[in-house]
Structure formats: C-alpha cells, structure tokens
C-alpha cells in the first residue's frame, strides 16, 4: 500500500525541476499568466514554499491568473448562469472566499464564526442566488448547511441542521434537492474521536426548508462518505474514506439512485488497497466513471452499467477531475494534467501548478 509518506516523497521528486508560478500577495490583485488560451479550469493550489492560491487556467493547465488564499483551500463552487465562484478552506476551515472568475475581483472574505468551521465544500443554488456551505459546530461536529444570500452580499439567511455529524461535500441532486456526503466523524481539529460509533450517510435535503427527504447508509460504518458527483445518468456517485484497519480493503466508490440502496463499484481487494483508503474527485462520461486518489497516487475507471473496474493507472498526487467535450481532465499535485477519452485513451501535459484535491470546469 502507498503511504502518505511515499506520496509526499514522490511529489517532491516530481516537482524537483519544475518552476511554479508564485502566488500573489495575500488577497491582492491577480497575477497574470503567459498563455493566451481561454479559461477552462479553476482550482486551489499549493507551492513548495507553503503558499496557497486559487488558479484559473487553460484546458491544458496553464495558469491565466491567480490570487492568494489565507490558508489551504479545498473545493470550489461555480455559480450557474453567472461569473462568481467560491473557494472553501480545507477542513476544519476558517474562511470562504467569493470572487468573480472572469475579472478576478474578490469579495470580502467570509470568516467562520468562532464556534464553527467550514468543511471544505459548497454549491450554488440552481438560480445562482444562494450559496450552500457545509459547516460544523466545533465542539460536537454537528453538521450545518449554511445558506448565504448572494444578492445581500453573502448574508447568512438560514441554517439547515439535524442530518448528521461531519458533513463534507454537498451537491445539487436536482434544482430542488441537496445531496450531502455525511462523513459521520466527530473530530477535534483533524483528529477523529468516534471511530467506534460513526454514522456515515448520504442525505438528501429540500433546498427551501432543509428538511430531510431521504437518508441512505452503507453497511460498513467505517466507510466515511466524503465526496460526491452527479453522474451523466442522474445518479449520485459517492467517494469514501475508509476508517478501519490499515490492512483491510473496502469498496471506496458507490452509486445511488433515489429510493434504492447504495451500490458498490467492483474491484478486487488488492485493487482497492491501491487507493490507500481514500477517494477524492469523481466524474462520469458516456457511461464510465473516473475517481482519483491523491493518497494512493492513482486513478481508477469503471464501467457504470456493469460496475466493473476498467483499469487503475498511477498518477502522483492525483487530484481534480472534470469533463470537457466528452473527455476527462485530470489534474495532480505534481502539475501533470491528463486528457482522457473514455474508456482509457490518454494525452498528458505539464502544468506549473501544484493542483490540490479538486477543480472545476468553467462554463463555455
């Protein structure tokens, strides 16, 4: 199994000869890249010196502009039918940053309340007027969905609670429904405190009232549901983090259709162990699903209908995945960017950006 230590060693080796675009001053004006290509990708990034930023880049990962963040970022939300984006700090996060991804203009940073933290993800409403953020109560890890009014300057207008502890990613299952990956883990900082009593679940909430519409759980309570994606057939794909014994294998990707149980994608134990108990980003194209594992330094591709694994390929610090014109774009912390035509035709590029776990494709 590839350990986090090995991952960091591989990443340092891959970055040794690279030139990384420096971050701008703290929340200063955007620094411009040299490419003349149109913006297609947006994600959080890191530098070897320990700085963090948001980067807007071309389709092959070349930076167009970037601005600094006050700490490590994680997920990005993109406003439908608008030009805003929101960057969320890595859990337990202390800020979220809204900005215009076309102009680079930043809104005032939104700090977490003293008794709260952000969990790293959020999503805009279908009309783009509200931002939903996963949050938690520091003392209990009680899950909260903070509802922010964009037209009111990011005023917090509601909170949805009562759906579980340790939520992570939230997506729009449809324009009326939020889907939340509830990890079920109570933490102090990043230290887990309740591994023997975890209650992970995939939960659906009404976007207007916050009422629970459906809750579905996996049989193995050590499978913490973390990351979500809506597939091209309308199912919710769930990426898990296994919190059990290090030598034990567990299925790390599942699919769910409303009113049915969660269904695991298939792989052998040895193949699941390649992912080092963690799946980050997920996206589907034309009946195939791709999931990355930065901890496992690899990505996997499955055929959705048969649930069978097509292949696993190595990629140092495999991170974000998105879809453009029927192809996957996969990033990595080493700066490598892959364009993959399903099921497994690959073209590779080198970017000067150390991409973090997630990125988004910008609308055309």
From TrEMBL:
UniProt signal peptide: 1-23
Key words, A-Z: Signal
Keyword Zinc in annotation: no
InterPro entries tied to this protein: UCP028101 (IPR008311), WD40/YVTN_repeat-like_dom_sf (IPR015943)
Superkingdom to which the source organism belongs: Bacteria
Protein name, per record: DUF1513 domain-containing protein
């Amino acid at each position: 199994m590839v350990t986090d230590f090995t991952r960091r060693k591989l990443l340092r080796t891959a970055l040794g000869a690279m030139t990384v675009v420096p971050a701008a001053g703290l929340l200063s004006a955007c620094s411009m890249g040299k490419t003349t290509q149109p913006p297609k990708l947006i994600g959080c990034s890191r530098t070897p010196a320990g700085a963090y930023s948001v980067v807007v880049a071309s389709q092959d990962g070349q930076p167009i502009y970037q601005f600094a963040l006050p700490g490590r970022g994680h997920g990005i939300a993109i406003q439908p039918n608008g030009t805003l984006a929101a960057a969320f700090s890595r859990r337990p996060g202390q800020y979220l940053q809204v900005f215009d991804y076309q102009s680079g203009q930043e809104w005032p940073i939104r700090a977490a309340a003293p008794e709260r933290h952000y969990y790293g993800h959020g999503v805009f409403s279908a009309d783009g007027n509200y931002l939903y953020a996963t949050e938690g109560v520091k003392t209990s890890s009680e899950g909260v969905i903070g509802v922010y009014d964009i037209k009111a300057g990011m005023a917090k207008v509601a909170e949805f609670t009562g759906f579980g502890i340790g939520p992570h990613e939230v997506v729009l299952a449809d324009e009326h429904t939020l889907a939340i990956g509830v990890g079920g883990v109570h933490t102090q900082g990043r230290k887990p405190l309740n591994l023997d009593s975890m209650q992970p679940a995939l939960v659906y909430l009404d976007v207007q009232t916050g009422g629970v519409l459906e809750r579905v759980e996996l049989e193995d309570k050590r499978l913490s549901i973390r990351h979500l994606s809506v597939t091209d057939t309308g199912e919710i794909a769930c990426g898990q983090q296994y919190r059990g014994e290090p030598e034990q294998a567990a299925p790390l990707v599942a699919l769910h259709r409303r009113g049915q149980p969660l269904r695991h994608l298939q792989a052998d134990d040895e193949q699941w162990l390649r992912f080092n108990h963690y799946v980050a980003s997920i996206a589907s194209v034309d009946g195939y699903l791709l999931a990355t594992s930065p901890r496992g330094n690899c990505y996997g591709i499955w055929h959705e209908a048969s649930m069978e694994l097509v292949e696993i390929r190595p990629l140092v610090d495999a991170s974000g995945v998105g879809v453009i014109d029927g192809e996957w774009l996969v990033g990595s912390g080493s700066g490598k960017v892959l364009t993959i035509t399903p099921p497994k035709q690959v073209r590779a590029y080198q970017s000067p950006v150390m991409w973090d776990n997630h990125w988004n494709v910008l609308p055309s």
